[in-house]
Amino acid sequence: MRRLVAAITLALPVFIVTGAAQTTVRFTDITRESGVTFHHVNGASSDKHLVETMGSGGLFFDYDNDGWIDLFLVDGGSLGDARVASQARHRLYRNRGNGMFDDVTGRSGIEHKDYGMGACAGDYDNDGWIDLYVTNVGPNVLYRNRGDGSFSDATNAAHVGAPRWSASCAFADLDKDGDLDLFVVNYVDADRQKTPYCGNAKLGQRFYCHPLNYPSLPNTLYRNDGHGVFTDVSAASGIGAYRGNGLGVVVTDYDGDGWSDVFVANDSVANFLFRNTGKLRFEEAALGAGVAVATDGKARAGMGVDAGDYDGDGREDVVVTNLDFETHSLFRNAGGGLFDYTTRTSGIGFATLPFVGFGVAFLDADNDMQLDIAIANGHIMDNAPVYRSGTTYAQRNLFFRNAGSKRFVEIGRSAGDGFAIEKVSRGLAAGDIDNDGDLDLLVTNNGQSADVLRNDSVRGNSLLVRVVTQTTRDAIGARVRVTAGGRTQIREVRAGSSYLGQNDLRLHFGLGHVAMVDRVEVTWPSERVEVVNTTAVNQIVTIQEGRGIVGRVPFVR
Amino acid sequence: MTRTAPWFAFVILLVPGPAAAQRAVVVEGLTELARAMMMLSENRAQVNAAIDKLAAGLDGWDAQTAGGSKEQDSPYGRSVPLSDEAAAIPVLPLAAYADGFARLRRGEYRDAIASLRLAAAAATDERSALAAAARLAQDGRHVEAERALRSIVAARPESAVAHWWLGRVYENLNRIADARKEYETVVPFALTGQATLYAAIGRLSHTEGDFARANDAFEQRLRLMPNDPVAHKDLAWLLIEQDRTEAAFNELITVVALEPRDAEAHAAIGRLHLDAGRHADAIGALRRALDLQPTLHDARYALALALKRTGREDEAAREMEMFERARRESTDDRRRTMSTEAQRQEEAQRDHPR
Q1: CB atoms B241 and A353 under 8 Å
Q2: Local confidence band at A174 (pLDDT 50, 70, 90 cut-offs)
Q3: CA B218/CA B112 separation, integer angstroms
Q4: Quick check: B245 and A344 CB within 8 A?
Q5: pLDDT of B21
Q6: What is the ipTM of this complex?
Q7: Pick from B174, B298, B327: which is nearest to A386 by CB?
Q8: Which residue has the higher pLDDT, A73 or A526?
Q9: Which residues in chain A are contacts of B263 at CB distance < 8 A?
Q10: What does R_g of chain A's alpha carbons equal in angstroms?
Q11: If you placed Cys at A544, which of A417, A491, A504, A550 could pair as Cys (CB 3.0 to 4.6 Å)?
Q12: Å between B192 CA and nearest CA of chain A
């Protein structure tokens, strides 16, 4: 008997470890067959302009309203070499309707104008066609969607072309007046002509400079005045009073007061959490909320950020990617406007220690009703081994499977060939490119080709929900609660998150073996609450404000 | 070489025994011998004098215990461990002395003395070449120093001093793995100061991201210096990074038991309490840390968070304000330092264009 007990005792940890390592998550690299041939131009030079290693991003958006998400990739350029700069070209890829893409850049009217960083997309003029905003090192560009497959440059007319070094951006109706405002994250004030010498000149070891070598910048908030024109309200809103080294942004109503708040991931200075107090006024609340720095009081090199309810308590938690040897950060929303720093207790800490993280997304990759986390990594230093031996410029990306009980297990090495890739990754966006009910990934890489990763995980049931306003614009800022199988999951519609990019605007709900959704509750940006009862799974439903479900399309499976 | 002087502030302790006076002579002899090695002095009289002193100490010790009941205390009777306590730098042999030092480590004292005398009588050793390489290293000519040291270790692989210098040069060249390997090579040769070497190996392994190796090195260091709070603290930081919070907590408790005035350790204990949701315990530990070291501003942030979670809003606000002010000043300081450094490098680049 004693022997039996001993055997069970010995076997138990093995069973637990094996159980934790088992995964059904699998991402397949389909870049080659997808038709996406984009190769990022970083303009790397011996002058080590910081921008050369920071970009660029990309996003999913359905620019032609055909129900299949398309893909936009931002190209970099060169600060010092006009010939190299001329090779840079943003790319618009149209989804053929099967998850494969055609390069339609030529007829899109989208041009490469300056060193490109990121992008976000939202229908700013409420005409039912999603528009595109591209951030640059230099003036940003707003592309108005004409509705015929092409875009026109509306930057000057809209007054949104501030010439700073901008990084991520987000569209959101922050004043709840029915149109989308624009939040632009600005990084640092770097001289385009001259970069400080950082490193060891005697040894000829030059590195990209730390962001604290440059003056910080305030972020920019543009209020949409409703007729295609924006007004810079950074100062009046309170946003402009705070200077940081902003890189990532996510808009989320963290305190559940009905007003969308803005989280900015700052590089090497404290993060910002701009709490929306209404009427486009914000107070900076990151320190008090516990998300400005880690509990050791030290600021991290915040890059990308996403929000999601990973523990199923109905509150949006926040994940931020950081530099290597800092660990990425997980902040669990404890309610009452406070977050707990759960990096170490969640399994996110040690697993992220060797990685420089950028793009990040909460997503339920295996449709098990729990949010997992995907992270794109790549070092800042192109000569990383000189900077720190044992490290590399290219790094593998990470996949954290939600193991329940507020714990994650990193399973990237066993998550298919899509996660075996080692590149200098930057952006990461999630979206269902083949409308089969699971979330695929787009990863952008610095100076390298982008990767399209198809989700081939063992498939559970799911539901994709598109919520649109009365003007058929995507209802950015809407909060959707789906109750099924005894659980309620929440999602918010966001136009801008991760790093320099944006996810599919449709909301994905993994449902496991649940065959019927009991309830879908939409809290519209207008504060109106709408409920749809009993919905079948495995379909894309479109819910329009005031009209309930107006469209149903079964998954392609 | 004058910079090396503080390195010799070590004390070599032998196990307690009846021959305390003779033990002091042994310690003195070893100290002088080590100094002669590390100073790279070509003055062989100095070396011989040190060996004489060492031999006299050992003989005296032997004489005092010979025939007595305390045979086990005789230095010639068994291996006598040499402690790492307070050894700021390893006592390392030149190649010719490697055998003698190895015998000393094993407690074969008579044979050790004979071997050391033979080494001292030998016509040449690597001293001149080492002195030249050391000069290059101290002038910042690391690449040339490396080349010189490499040729020394190629000819005399047992030269622990050469390996040690090579480790230092590699550290300056930011060749972390190479530096670590050199220190690992030195460990078996070190007469004392192994803990210092393990500390360096652990630190460099950590930089390489090799946590298993770093853990091992820091644990070896603790085996040699179980009562060193710094060694426990270094291991605790490493464990925290690996999310091994319970083990880290235990190490930190040991730190404050050994050194109750260690504010950093109290603060770390407080943060671990905070992360675990033990807010009252966190407040206690963090307050203690700040009482001991009011300038430990980072701890105020954790304290403010803990106070806030226990509803003590006013106190939390006060701590947060102090933290915020200090954080801003610290960021400004960092900016200034980085700017100055960049200017320095730009000047260096102008002077040494590559």
Answers
A1: yes
A2: very high
A3: 30
A4: yes
A5: 67
A6: 0.88
A7: B174
A8: A73
A9: none
A10: 22
A11: A550
A12: 29
Tokens of A506: 């449709």
- Smallest Cα–Cα separation from A450: which of A401, A413, A410, A397? A397
Mean of pLDDT values over B64-83: 49
Which residues of A fall below an 8 Å CB-CB distance to B?
A: 196-205, 209-210, 212-213, 269-270, 287-288, 290, 293, 295-299, 324-325, 327, 338, 340-342, 344-345, 347, 349-350, 353-354, 386-391
Kindly state the tokens that stand for B133.
């390489």
Residues whose CB is less than 8 angstroms from the CB of residue A517 and which lie 6 or more positions away in sequence, other chains included: A463, A482, A483, A484, A509, A511, A534, A535, A536, A537
**How many Å apart are CA B237 and CA B244, to the nearest integer?**
10
| Residue A427 tokens, joined | 């952006």
pLDDT tens readout for residues B227-246: 999 999 999 999 999 999 99
Chain B residues lying within 8 Å of A299, measured CB to CB: 327, 331
Are A353 and B209 a contacting pair at CB < 8 A?
yes
Give CA separation, A371 vs A317, A351, A367, A374, A403, in Å.
Answer: 11, 18, 9, 10, 10
Residue B101 and residue B113: Cα distance in Å, rounded? Answer: 9
Q: What is the pLDDT of residues A127-136, one digit of tens each?
A: 999 999 999 9
CA angle A58, A63, A65 (to 5 degrees): 140
Q: Which of B241, B278, B279 to mutate to test the interface with A (most CBs of A within 10 A)?
A: B241
Shortest distance between the Cα of A352 and any Cα of chain B, in A, equals 10
A-B contacts at Cβ under 8 angstroms: 125
Q: State pLDDT tens for residues B235-277.
A: 999 999 999 999 999 999 999 999 999 999 999 999 999 999 9
Which pTM does this prediction carry? 0.89
Cis status of the peptide bond prior to A56, with omega within 30 of 0: yes
Q: Give φ, ψ of A465 to 5 degrees.
A: -120, 125
Closest-CA residue of A relative to B277 is: A340
The residue behind tokens 């931020």 is: A320
B310 part of contact set with chain A, CB < 8 Å: no
Q: Can you tell me the mean pLDDT for B181-210?
A: 91
**What is the spatial distance between Cα A35 and Cα A56, in angstroms, rounded to a whole number?**
19
Q: Which residues contact B158 (CB under 8 A, 6 or more apart)?
A: B93, B95, B98, B189
